[in-house]
């Protein structure tokens, strides 16, 4: 039996401005936090990323894959694959170079006008993340990022500006990328310049509150500007299994899961859940609610989007708490799963589990906006004399995950669409490497800065084209 995906299913790919655009100070763009993290934004557990005073030549993101100048070529490739949707982000510091100005940078606004027009030329709907790990550097250094209440107004002003500008060009919006990642990566996710070891739980959770209020206010403004806007939250999803059936492990897994689920709960239900209130109470954290915050939070999202790369286990047994190499949000490795080259455990069934969990909890439409395999790809010349990558490992990974999406749809889950992460090779967020490739399109650029920036189709390009053309019927169960 072939997979049955809905007829209007939104197939596509996903990127982030800071990982592919380059042109880091072209046409009036200001510096973002990404421009000073040459080794990536995730330093591993308990640490901070390397942060430089100013951008340095070894930062791959300064050029990225030169999408800023080559987007027409790249969008044409996406159209050839049959994309219905293209997820990208707006670089906040292109629109407001410092982040706190009153007037936007017109050159920055024009770039996204042209990008979205190019998408529409091929019938591709843009799905736009308003803030994707690229807080303007000035807001980080001057205000300590989202710890400061003033960022709520700066962000809402920025969001209102882009909503008004693109109200007839963009229908689908996401407020913050992987908003819950602030728990482990406060600089990358929240622009918080206070070192992680010095950041109090009080300040961290106040910053989270500010983001949640800003997100909700943005939903309200967006719906006023265009009632047809579909505005979603975006969370990093990671199923957490108990390592053993021991009830202590089950409770440990539940409590770890609560830390992540709180973000979706507040976005969808508009109130802080009881378990979150208990956590705050027991940790001596008092969230300062300004007048109107509780009311603002009630402006809930239209859909839930999420990334999915891996699952983890949790245990209450201190002797078994071995850190998983690539597990961003902690946890211990699952002995039943294999891992990618970067230590991310591969669990296709976890995606079906996540989809069912979200659906059972919220009954809101779901959108998988990141899923993919980072791997070292080898560019070869095939028998036809074409340069390509024989990336069967990526095809297998994506096939197996999409089969599980199909299973979730059979379970009755409402899934809007699926955008693979890094549909064209780009600079990794976690490590700032280009050798960790995700794309269907190979970009000739390397970690030493060498390369022509030429693009080549990988084997997975035509595979994904076929999946889209058949609406999932070509998938192998």
From TrEMBL:
The active site is at 370 (nucleophile). One of its GO terms (molecular function) is beta-glucosidase activity. The keyword Hydrolase applies. InterPro entries: GH, GH_1_N_CS, Glyco_hydro_1, Glyco_hydro_1_AS. Keywords: Glycosidase, Hydrolase. One of its GO terms (biological process) is carbohydrate catabolic process. It holds the Pfam family Glyco_hydro_1. GO terms for cellular component: cytosol. PANTHER family: 6-PHOSPHO-BETA-GLUCOSIDASE ASCB-RELATED (PTHR10353:SF122), GLYCOSYL HYDROLASE (PTHR10353). Belongs to the glycosyl hydrolase 1 family. This is Amygdalase. It comes from Saccharibacillus brassicae.
């Amino acid at each position: 039996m072939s997979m049955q995906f809905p007829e209007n299913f939104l197939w596509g790919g996903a990127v982030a401005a800071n990982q592919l655009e380059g042109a880091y100070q072209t046409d009036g763009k200001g510096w973002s936090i990404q421009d000073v993290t040459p080794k990536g934004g995730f330093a591993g557990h308990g640490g901070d990323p390397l942060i430089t005073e100013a951008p340095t030549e070894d930062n791959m993101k300064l050029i990225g894959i030169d999408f800023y100048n080559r987007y027409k070529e790249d969008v044409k490739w996406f159209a050839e694959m049959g994309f219905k949707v293209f997820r990208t982000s707006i670089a906040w510091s292109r629109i407001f170079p410092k982040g706190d100005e009153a007037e936007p940078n017109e050159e920055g606004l024009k770039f996204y006008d042209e990008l979205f027009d190019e998408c529409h030329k091929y019938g591709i709907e843009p799905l736009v993340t308003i803030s994707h790990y690229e807080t303007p550097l000035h807001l980080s250094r001057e205000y300590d990022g989202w710890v400061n209440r003033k960022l709520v107004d700066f962000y809402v002003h920025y969001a209102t500006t882009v909503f008004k500008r693109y109200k007839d060009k963009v229908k689908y919006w996401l407020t913050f990328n992987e908003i819950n990642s602030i728990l482990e990566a406060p600089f990358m996710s929240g622009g918080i310049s206070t070192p992680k070891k010095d950041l109090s739980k009080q300040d961290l959770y106040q910053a989270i509150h500010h983001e949640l209020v800003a997100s909700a206010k943005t939903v309200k403004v967006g719906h006023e500007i265009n009632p047809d806007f579909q505005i979603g939250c975006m969370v990093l999803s990671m199923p957490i299994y108990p390592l053993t059936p021991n009830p202590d492990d089950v409770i440990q897994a539940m409590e770890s899961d609560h830390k992540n689920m709180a973000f979706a709960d507040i976005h969808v239900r508009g109130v802080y859940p009881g378990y979150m209130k208990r956590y705050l109470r027991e940790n001596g954290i008092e969230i300062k609610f300004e007048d109107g915050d509780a009311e603002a939070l009630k402006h809930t999202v239209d859909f839930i989007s999420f990334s999915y790369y891996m699952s983890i286990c949790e245990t209450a047994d201190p002797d078994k708490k071995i850190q998983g190499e690539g597990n961003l949000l902690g946890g211990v490795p699952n002995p039943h799963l294999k891992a990618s080259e970067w230590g991310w455990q591969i669990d296709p069934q976890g995606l079906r589990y996540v989809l069912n969990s979200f659906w059972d909890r919220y009954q809101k439409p779901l959108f998988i906006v990141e899923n993919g395999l980072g791997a070292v790809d080898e560019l070869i010349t095939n028998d036809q004399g074409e340069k390509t990558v024989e990336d069967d490992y990526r095809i297998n990974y994506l096939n197996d995950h999409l089969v599980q999406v199909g299973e979730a749809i059979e379970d009755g889950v409402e899934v809007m669409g699926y955008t693979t992460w890094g549909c064209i090779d780009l600079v990794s967020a976690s490590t700032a490497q280009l050798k960790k490739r995700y794309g269907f399109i190979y970009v000739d650029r390397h970690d030493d800065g060498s390369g022509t920036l030429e693009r080549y189709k990988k084997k997975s390009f035509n595979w994904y084209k076929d999946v889209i053309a058949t609406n999932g019927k070509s998938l192998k169960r």
